[in-house]
Amino acid sequence: MRICVFGAGSIGGHVAARLAAAGHEVSVVARGAHLDAIRARGLELRFNGPQPAIRARVAASDRPADLGPQDAVFITTKANALSASAGSVAPLLGPVTPVAFVQNGIPWWYARGLRAGRPPPPDLSALDPGGALERAIGFERTIGGVVLSSNEVVEPGIVRNQTPTRNVLTLGEIDDRPSERVAALRLALRDAGMSSPDTADIRLVAWNKLLRNLSRSTLCALSGESIHDLFHADAAMQELARRIATEAVAVAAAHGFDVDIDVPGMFGPKDIVQPHKPSILQDYERGRPMEVEALIKAPQQFARAAGVDTPSLDAVVALIVHRARTKGLY
């Protein structure tokens, strides 16, 4: 397949390297020193552990028009950068090119194709200001994507994966119908060495990841520590994370989603071994705009819409918003 990864950072670089190594004709949209390195040396995906690195040559540009129409596009930019890049995606789109949005938090397309019987969401217009994504790409092309994979760009052109045994990219139509195009993309990912499980409810998958982000990533962003360093021996921080998770489970349930998270047991040994810093903390430390709206403010709006009290989450949201604004990142 001819596949473009729009935003070849930590997640996008991982996906692009795997797909290219599997034989697909892969291109990436990147910029700056990262783009220069990819052009000169290709993409390198390293792993924590004995697994050998993947090195792949891909076409690369900061101008999508250089890359031309694709069979599929994966957009892996942060949620807060989507609208700004919407207009530049057009040269990548053929008549029926699907676009998979792989992002954290509540997706911009959430209200479209929502299953009957589930409460309508709150106003999510802040996730697609002015309807830029709807106009440029449209709901018909859009595929939902949720990724579980811990990665970091350690130097230009090189991505390090910190979870070599857990790299999952779940895809689904936004109205949850089965489709040949989703099946084809899942197969391409599986053949490239990623897990891409079937799902008949992509929003449930998004909520499952979101609850973990809300209860862990947010506290890492406030403390400046990795998941391991923050939670390994700090019972008080573990308890605060459980309180946030409990509130978030109630919010999801009020909107029709029975999430798969064991709140009492959420800090077993496998949960706190990662030295990884969540992406929202990486963005803060590197002075990049933070995914505040999709990742933490939108869930708070869902709580308000359902009348669910979330005192612990509210405190964390206020602190992160303040911290991000103080540094000019929101």
Q: Helix/strand-derived class?
A: alpha/beta
Average pLDDT confidence is 95
Strand order of the largest sheet: 5-2-1-6-7-8-11
- Uncertain runs are none
Query: How would you spell out the order of helices and strands?
Result: EHEHEEEEHEHEEEEHHHHHHH
Overall geometry: globular
Beta-strand percent range: 15-25%
Radius of gyration: 19 Å
Oligomer: single chain
Describe the biggest sheet?
A: 7 strands, mixed
Distance between the termini: 37 Å
Count the beta strands.
11
Give an account of the 3D structure.
Helices cover 39% and strands 15% of the residues. The chain is of the alpha/beta class and 330 residues long. The strands form 2 sheets. Strands 5-2-1-6-7-8-11 form a 7-stranded mixed β-sheet. Strands 4-3-10-9 form a 4-stranded mixed β-sheet. The two termini are 37 Å apart. The mean pLDDT is 95.
Quickly describe the structure.
By secondary structure, the chain is an alpha/beta fold.
Question: What are the salient characteristics of this protein?
Answer:
alpha/beta, 11 strands, 4-stranded mixed β-sheet, 39% helix
List the helices and strands and how they pair.
Blueprint lengths: L1 E5 L3 H12 L3 E5 L2 H10 L1 E5 L6 E3 L2 E3 L10 E4 L6 H4 L13 E4 L29 H5 L5 E7 L2 E5 L2 E4 L6 E6 L6 H12 L10 H22 L3 H5 L3 H20 L24 H7 L6 H15 L4 H16 L4
Parallel strand pairs: 1-2, 1-6, 2-5, 3-10, 6-7, 7-8
Antiparallel strand pairs: 3-4, 8-11, 9-10
Helix pairs in contact: 6-8, 6-9, 6-11, 8-10, 10-11
